[in-house]
Specification:
Oligomer: single chain
Distance between the termini: 30 Å
Strand content: under 5%
Shape: globular
Largest sheet: 2 strands, antiparallel
């Protein structure tokens, strides 16, 4: 699949080697991969860690373990001195950990977002006469609106890099200039770190 003359997108086969596939097959493979990820309860857990099957937090205070009063209130103790930060004490941290998502969650979302962006790039470059068709407001307003929203969210949350946007950078610049893509989104106003 390609996006113009300078961008060719390949798919990794089962031996993890890049292979060229036609656009229709690439799009089908992206759909299958994303659906497979979304339906994988390890990659996208559906049970809340705070739901009905969540572990009980009763009698978790060491100071009340031997209490005969049945009270689960902690016994006040004096301050302690910590030589390490609280984040160090709590162990490795990643985006989505508190909600039960795996360490690979953000990477998987970025990969899915990049793959979907490549489909947009192919659609615009291969199925319209001359770039940039967006100037004709009667042509594909839904596609343009969807693309602007997709890029805005992708850039705002760091799901798309400047390198990812290269095949569509001219169009993105026009949409930023006309306000279809807010400039703070285009500049990646929020950053999610892994």
């Amino acid at each position: 699949m390609s996006a113009g003359r300078h961008y060719v997108y390949t798919w990794l086969n089962t031996e993890r080697q890049p292979i060229r596939v036609p656009a229709s097959q690439y799009i089908m493979l992206v759909q299958r991969w994303i659906v497979g990820k979304i339906h994988d309860p390890v990659a996208f857990p559906t049970d809340s860690p705070f739901g009905p099957n969540a572990p009980s937090f009763e009698a978790t205070y060491p100071s009340t373990a031997g209490s005969s009063t049945g009270s689960n209130k902690p016994i006040a103790a004096g301050p302690t001195t910590l030589n390490r930060t609280l984040s160090d004490l709590s162990g490795r941290d990643w985006f989505g950990k508190a909600a039960g998502f795996p360490e690979s969650f953000l990477s998987d979302v970025r990969t899915a977002w990049r793959q979907m962006f490549r489909i947009y790039a192919h659609l615009y470059h291969s199925h319209f006469i001359d770039p940039f068709w967006h100037i004709n407001k009667s042509c594909c307003p839904d596609l343009n609106s969807s693309f602007c929203f997709f890029v805005s969210v992708g850039k705002l949350y760091g799901l798309l890099t400047d390198r990812d946007l290269e095949p569509m950078q001219e169009l993105v610049n026009i949409f930023v200039a006309n306000g279809s893509i807010p400039s703070d989104c285009a500049n990646g106003a929020l950053t999610i770190s892994q």
